[in-house]
Amino acid sequence: MTWSATARGAHQPDNTAFTQQRLPAWQPLLSASIALPLFFCAGLAFIGLGLGLYYSSNGIKELEYDYTGDLGTSNCSVCAAAGQGRSPPPRCSCAWYFSLPELFQGPVYLYYELTNFYQNYRRYGVSRDDEQLSGLPSALRHPANECAPYQLSAAGLPIAPCGAIANSLFNDSFSLWHQRRAGGPYVEVPLDRTGIAWWTDYHVKFRNPPLVNGSLALAFQGTAPPPNWHRPVYDLSTDPNNTGFINQDFVVWMRTAALPTFRKLYARIRQGNYSTGLPRGAYRVNITYNYPVRAFGGHKLIIFSSISWMGGKNPFLGIAYLVVGSLCILMGFVMLVVYIRYQDQNDEDEDEE
Amino acid sequence: MEQEPAAAEEPGSPEARRRRRRRREGRTRTVRSNLLPPPGAEDPGTSVAKGARRRCAGTQHLADNRLKTTKYTLLSFLPKNLFEQFHRLANVYFVFIALLNFVPAVNAFQPGLALAPVLFILAVTAFKDLWEDYSRHRSDHEINHLGCLVFSREEKQYVHRHWKEVRVGDFVRLRCNEIIPADILLLSSSDPDGLCHIETANLDGETNLKRRQVVRGFSELVSEFNPLTFTSVIECEKPNNDLTRFRGCIVHDSGKKAGLYKENLLLRGCTVRNTEAVVGIVIYAGHETKALLNNSGPRYKRSQLERQMNCDVLWCVLLLVCMSLFSAVGHGLWVQRYQEKKSLFDVPESDGTSLSPVTAAVYSFLTMIIVLQVLIPISLYVSIEIVKVCQVHFINQDIELYDEETDSQLQCRALNITEDLGQIQYIFSDKTGTLTENKMVFRRCTVSGVEYSHDANARRLARYQEADSEEEEVVPRGGSLPQRGSSGSHQSVRIVHRSQSTRSHRRTGSRAEAKLASMLSKHTAFSSPMEKDITPDPKLLEKVSECGRCLAFARHQEHPLAHLSPELSDIFDFFIALTICNTVVVTSPDQPRQKQVRVRFELKSPVKTIEDFLRRFTPSRLTSSCSSIGSVAATKPAHKAGSSFLSTLPNDSALLGLEERLGPPAPALASNGYSSGARGWAAQCAAAREPQPEPEPEPHSEPQPQPGPEGELRYEAESPDEAALVYAARAYNCKLVDRLHDQVSVELPHLGRLTFELLHTLGFDSIRKRMSVVIRHPLTDEINVYTKGADSVVMDLLLPCSADDARGRHQKKIRSKTQNYLNLYAVEGLRTLCIAKRVLSKEEYACWLQSHLEAESALDNREELLFQSALRLETNLHLLGATGIEDRLQDGVPETIAKLRQAGLQIWVLTGDKQETAINIAYACKLLDHNEEVITLNAESQEVCAALLDQCLHYVQSRSPHSAPEKTAGSLSVGFSPVYPPSTVTTAGPSLSLVIDGRSLAYALEKNLEDKFLFLAKQCRSVLCCRSTPLQKSMVVKLVRSKLKAMTLAIGDGANDVSMIQVADVGVGISGQEGMQAVMASDFAVPRFRYLERLLIVHGHWCYSRLANMVLYFFYKNTMFVGLLFWFQFYCGFSASAMIDQWYLIFFNLLFSSLPQLVTGVLDKDVPADVLLTKPQLYTSGQNREEYRPRTFWLNMADAAFQSLVCFFIPYLAYYDSDTDVFTWGTPITAIALFTFLLHLGIETKTWTWLNWTACGFSILLFFTVALIYNASCATCYPPSNPYWTMQTLMGDPVFYLTCLIAPVAALLPRLFCKALQGSLFPTQLQLARQLAKRSPEKLSAPKGTFAQGHVPGEPRTEPSEQRSLRASGSFSQDCGSQASWHAQQPACSPEASGEPSVVDMGMPLREDALLEGLSGQTPGASSPGQVVLEGCPRYSRRKPTSTSRAAPLSSIFSLPSFSSLSWISSLSLVSGLGSVLQFSRSGLQMDKRDGEFLASRPQPDQDLRGLSGQTTDCF
C-alpha cells in the first residue's frame, strides 16, 4: 500500500491517542439502568449507617439546665434581676438542683452553653492579637490594631489580653455537689478544669510571656486587664500552669464559636468515684452568676453530657443518613419502574424491526 | 531618505514648487543612493549640501531594515504589560476588590493575601505575554541576522551584511533563490531582458512566478550596473500596505523622468527565482516594507458563547450586589438590635463610640463584596483561555484534518472562537476553489461554430475519478487501451504514449504519490497530470494538422493565411490565441536565463513612442517583412527587422538563424527548429493515415531557452484557466515555448517555431472580464489583437455582421451556434471563455498606440486611462471560438454539503460565476436537488425585483400550509431569463431553492426589500447568488448576521472572498490554489472544503459543548460556593464574616477545584467523533444553544443554591449545639464543597480518561495537603483567621467524615435523579447517540467488516454479515427514534443489500429521498476507506487499514452497511460506464446503457443514478 511507503509530511500531526483525543475512556451514561443499582446500594448503605449513628447518638445522655434566670424560672432569676441594667453586675450566686435516678454513664463533660451570642460577628472575631497570646513580649506591649477599642486602656496601658473576645470572657463559675443519700451532706464533685482546651492551643498557640524574676505578674507589669475583667490575667487561677494566657477557660473562650448558639467545655468529671460517671443521687450545681446575657436576649445553659465516638449527643446525622438513604431507595424504586417500562419499550422497538 | 523634493532638484516654477510641497506633505518619499558622497565632503553645491543635511536629519525618521515585532523591552515590560492587562475590565475589578482589602474598616482578608489571586492571574498572563514576546524576539533576531550582499562605498564592491544593516538607499545584490530583504527597486538583472522572476509565496502564498522588470532606462545598459554611477533620485509614495500598487518616478541627472510601477519593485519576503542575480536600490526598509505593513497580527473576535457568558457574568454581578445589599440591610438591622443592648460581643469603634447601623451597613456591604467576590469568577477568563488554547491545539493536531497532498493541516488563526464552530447556522460559500478544486481542466471547445466534444478527454477525466476511487489498486489499465485506440488510428502511437503516461499519472493520482509529486514540484502550481494531459479531439486535431500543412505550403506566399478556408483560419487563430493570449510564464526547471553578450536591436522592447512605432513599422510595411524564424525563409529581404527577433536566442543559433534566413528557402531547411515539423509533415503527407510520431525537436537545433524533451517546460500561470488553455493548445501540438516580455514563441505542428512580436498585453481585470494581447503575426505581418474573456462580454464586443452578404450571414450563424454551445457548456457546469480576434490596420494601430502611450506615461489616474485605452482596442472583434473548462468538484463536496445540511446548516453559495454554471455546479454538489423547486430571481429593475419578491412570497406562503397540488406541480419560474429546466414535483413539501443573480441581488439588498428577500431566503433550503461581487457577498453575510441574528460562517479561497470572510462570525479560508489572501483574513484555514464537515460537526460541536458546560459549571461552582458564605450570614449577624478560612476562600477556585474542570473542559467528548459524523443532526444542539441557554443557566444557578443550602445546613445541623469553633466548622464545609464540586463534575463529565481521574485525585490531595501544611505551619501567622491544627483535629473526628459523605450525596441527589430520569425518559439526541455508541460497539463492528471489504473489488460479500449489518442499522434507527428517513430506508435498502437489484415497489417518493439521503450519507466512508477505518480503530495506526478493520470497536455506526454494498455495485457499473455518467447525471436526460441495465427497473432511475453518480464524483 502506498500509505506506508510515503514519508511523513512535515506538518503531519502526531498520531497519538492524546492528540487525536482517543484516550481510552469510561463513558458512563446517566440513565435508569446505571442509576438503579447506585441508588439502591447507596440507600441501603446510608440507612445502615444512619441506624448505627442514630442509636449511638441515642446512647448519649444529656442533661441541660437554662439558668439565665428568666422571671420565675429558677432561683437564678434573682441574680438575673439583680444584674439587670447594672454593669458590672453585683456578685451573685444561685444553684441548680437535680437528681439522677441512675448512673449517668461517664466520662461526663460539663459544658456551658450560650445562645444568641455572636462570637462569629466579624468585628468581634477579629478583635484579638494572636501574637500577644502566644507570649510575644513585643506584642504584649503593643497589641495589634485589630484589638481596638480594647487595645489600650483608658490610662494608655496596653491591654493584655487585648481585644473584644478576651474582654467578653465568660466568667460564671460552677461547682458540683453530690448528695449521696437524701438528706445527706453534699459532697463536692471534683471538676477537672484542665485538658478542656485543645492540646495545641494550650501548648502551642497560647503561651505566657517570659517570666520576669520568676513571676508572671511582673511579666504582665505595665499592662492593663480588659475593662470587663475584675482581675488581671495572671490572677485567673492559682495554678501556675493554668493562669495567664494559658488559663484553659480563657483558651477555650478564645476559640470563637462558629454559630450564635454554642457550647464550651467547662470541665470534665473523671476523678475518683466519678470516673465512671455520676452515680445516682441528688446534685446541686452552685453557679456564680456574673455573665450578663439577658440584655441581648441570650441564654445561659449548663449541660452535663457523656460523649461517644462521634462526640456529643446529636441525633441529626443519624436522621440525615436515614432520610437520605430512604430517599435513595425511593428514587431507586422510581428508577426501577422507569427502567422496566423503558426496557419494554426498547424490546417493542426491537421487535418492530 | 525622506526629504524635501524641492531641495533635491533645481527649483522649478512656483507653481511646481507648490505642487511638490503638497506632495511632500502628502505622500511622497525621495530616495537617493547612499553611495553619494557625504555632505560637504566634495560637493560644494549648497542645495545638495542642504539636501544631504536634510537627508541626515531625515534618516532618523526612516525605518531601517531591522525587524522588531516585539512589544516590550526589558524595562517597559512591566508597566506596558500591566497597562494592557488592565484594559480588561475584569482585571480592574479584581484589583479594585483586592485594594478594598487595604481599607481596615471593610477588609475581609489579609490585604496581601487578597492580592494573591489577582497577582497570580496577572502573572500568568504576563508570563504568557513575555514568552510570546521572547519567541518573537528570537525570530526577529534570526531574520535580522540573515545575510545579503550590499554595495559598500568604502570597498567598492558588494559585501556581506546582515539584513538589519540594510538601509534605504543601499544597493543590494540578490542571487537566485535568495529572499528579498527589503522593498527594492529593480535596477539591474542578469536576465537578458531585464526581467526578474519572483515568487511571492511568503507574501500571499502564490507559488507561480511573477515577473518584475528593471526600471526603464536601466534595462538598456549593456555593461554591468555600477552603483557608484547611480545618481538619479527616486520619488515614490510614502510607505503603504497596498501590495498591488507602487507608483513613483525616477529622476535622472539629466532631468529626465521615468515612471516606476509595481513591476519594478521587489517586495520583501519574496524569493528571487529563475534569475541569476539582480541589483536594486532599497526603497522601503524594515517596518515600512509593504510586506510588514500588511502584517496585522492575529484577529480578536469575541465568540457568541463568550458574549452570552459576559451577559451572565453581569447577572452574577447583579446577584452579588443583591446579596451584598441584602446582607448590608440585615447587618444594619442586627446592629441596631444589639447595639443598644450593650451586647457583650458588640465591638465599638476604636474611639469607643458605637458604630451607627447605617455606617455598619455600608461597611458590611463593601466587605460582603470582598467576601463574595468569588461569585465573579476571576479564574473563568483564564480557564477559558487555557481551554481554548488546548482546543485549538487539538484541532490543529487532528490527523483527519490533515491533507497529505499539500502537507498542510488545519490552522486555527483565531484563538478564541472555537466554540462558534459548533453554533453555525448559515454557511456562505464561494464556489470556485472552494466547492471546486480550482484545477481547471480543458474539457471541450467550439471553433467557428463547430463543436468538438472531446469525448476521449471526458473519458480521460472520468478515469481520474476512478483512479482516485480505487487508489490502492495498482493494476495496469491496459484494458482500456484498445478502446482508446479506436478513437483514431492515426493517433495510435500517441495513444500508447499517453496511456503509459496516464498510468503513471494514475498512480500519481493516488494521494500519496500526489503528495510526493507535489513536494517535488513544490514551486509549480497547476501542474497535475490531469490538467496537463489533454486528449485532443481527433477531428479537431486533424483540422489543426491540416491547417499546419496548408500553412507550411503557403508560408512562402504573400498571404499565407488567405489560403486557408475561413474555418481553418479560425482554428489556426484560435490555437494561437489559446497559446499566447495569457501571461503564462514558461520555465524550464532551475535554469535561470543567462545574460548574454549580445547585440541589442532597437526593436527590443514594446513600442514606446510613436517615432519608435514609425521606425519599426514603416519599413516593414514597405518590405512586408516577416520576422520570425519560421517565416524567414520567405523570399523577402527582411534583414533588419527580422533579425531582431533572434535576440533571445544564444549567439551561435542566432548566427545560424541568420545564415538560414539568407539562405535558400524551404527544401534546404533541414537542420533548424522548424525542420522537424516540416519533416513530420512530409511524413504525414506520404502516409496521411499512418501513425505519426510526435514531433520531436532536435536537441542541437533547440538551444538554451527551449528545452529539449517535452514535459520539461513548465507553465506558470496566474490563473488556472490560463494554464488549462495553454495545456490544451499543447495537446494540439501548438506549444508555447518561450515567452519574453516582448515576444512569444510558439511551436506549431508543421511550421516549427513561430515567434510573435508581443506589442502589448492588456491584462485581465474583473471589470472588463477579458484580457488581450496585441501581437504582430509573423506569417502575415499583420497586427492582431487576441482577446479572451467571459462570453457575456466578448459576445457584445463582436463586429456587427451585416446580414447582406453570405459571409456576414455565415458569421451570424457561427455566433448563434457558438452561443448555443456556450449555453450547453454552462449547463454542463463548465466555465466558458470566448476567444476572439481583431486585425488592426497599421493606421488603426498607430492611432490607438498614441493614446495608449499617453495613458501609459500619465502619472495621474493612469489606471483609468489604461482602462479606457483597453476598451478602445477591444471592439469589433471577430469571434474565433469558445472553450469549456471544467472546474472539478473537490473531493467529498456533495457528501459534505449533505452532511452539513443534515446538521441543520443553511448553505448559501455566493459566486461570481454565471448563473447557469453556478446552478449546474450546485446540482453537481447536491446543493440543489432535482426534486426541489428552484425559484429564480432575475430582475432588471428595482420595481420588478420588488414585484417578483412579492410574487415569490405569495407563492411560498400559499404552499407552506399544505399547498394545493396543482400549484406545486412544475417549478415556479419567475424572471426574464430562461429558467433552468423545470423539475417535476408531485409530492407535497418539496424544498425550495432560490437562485438570484447579482443585479437582482443588488436590488434585493436595498433597504426596503431586504426583509422580503430574507424572508424568502429563509424559506429556501439553499440559496445561490450568482454573479455577485465581493461587496455583495459581504453584504449578504452582514444582512443575515444582523437581521436573522444567526451565526454565520463564510468560506472562500480567493481575494474576492476576503470581505465576506471578514464579515462573518467565523471566516474560513481555503489554502488552495488562489493564494493566501483568504487564508490571511480567515479565522480558520482548511486545506479543502470537505474538512469543514469534521471541523464543524465534530470539533465545533465538541468545542461548543465543552466550553458551554465548563462555563455553566463555573457559574454553578461559584454560586454554590458563595451560597455557603451567604447562608452563614444569617448566623453571624450579616457581618460578612466567613466560616471558610481566607486561604481556602481565595485559593479554592484557583487551585483546588480548577484542574478537574479544565481537564473536562479540554477533553470531554459528549459524543464520539464517528457518531457525530454519521449523525450530523446532533449538530443542531449547538445551533439551538441547547447546552447553554438562559434557562439552563438559571436552572444551574437554582441547583447551585439548593446544593449550597444542603452543604451548609447539613454541617450546621451536625455541629449544632456543639463546642465547634468557626474554622473547625468551616473546614468541613470547604471539604464538602470540594467533594460536591467534584461529584457534580463527575455527573457532568461524559468521558472519564485517566486524566480526569488524576485531576480529581490531585484536587483532593492538593486540598488536604495544603490544608494540613497550612494548618500546621504557624500558630499565629494568619490573622484574623486562626486555623492552627484544625485540619489535623478534624481528621481525627468521625463526624467530619460523616458529614463529608452525606452532604455531597444529599446535595447531588436531585440532580442525579433528574438526570437519570431524563436520560431514560426524555433522552436528548445527544444522549441517544452516546447510548448507541456505547451500547453497540460489537454490533457495529460487524458491518464495519463488510463495509471495509466492500471496497475491495471482487471480494464476495457474505450473507451473514449482511444480516448482521441489517440488524445493526435496525437497532440504530430504533434508537434514534423519530427520524422518518431512517425508518423509511429500511425496506428500501434491504433487498439491494442482499444482492438482488430488484424493484422494491414502494412507489413513495419518500423512498427515493431516503435512498438518496442514505447514499449521500454514507459515501464519505465509501470514498475513503482508510479514513473510516481510522475512525473506527483508534488504537491502531492508520497505515494498516485491512488488518485493523475487524478490530474496530466503533465504526461509523450509521453508515448503513447495506448501502455500502449498493454503492459498490454502482461503482462497478460506473467503472464500465466511464465518464459519461457524470454528464448524464447532470443533464438528467441521457442515460448510459450500462447504468440503465443495472438500474433500469427502478421507478425513477435518473434520480437514483444521480445519487450514485454524485457519489462517484466524490470519489475523487
UniProtKB/TrEMBL annotation, chain A:
Keyword Membrane carried by entry: yes
Compartments, as annotated in UniProt: Membrane
Pfam families documented for this protein: CDC50
Keywords of this entry: Membrane, Transmembrane, Transmembrane helix
Lineage top rank: taxon: Eukaryota
Family named by the database record: Belongs to the CDC50/LEM3 family.
GO BP field: positive regulation of protein exit from endoplasmic reticulum
UniProt name for this protein: Cell cycle control protein
Molecular-function annotations in GO: aminophospholipid flippase activity
Organism (species): Camelus dromedarius
Transmembrane listed as a keyword: yes
Membrane-spanning ranges: 34-55, 316-340
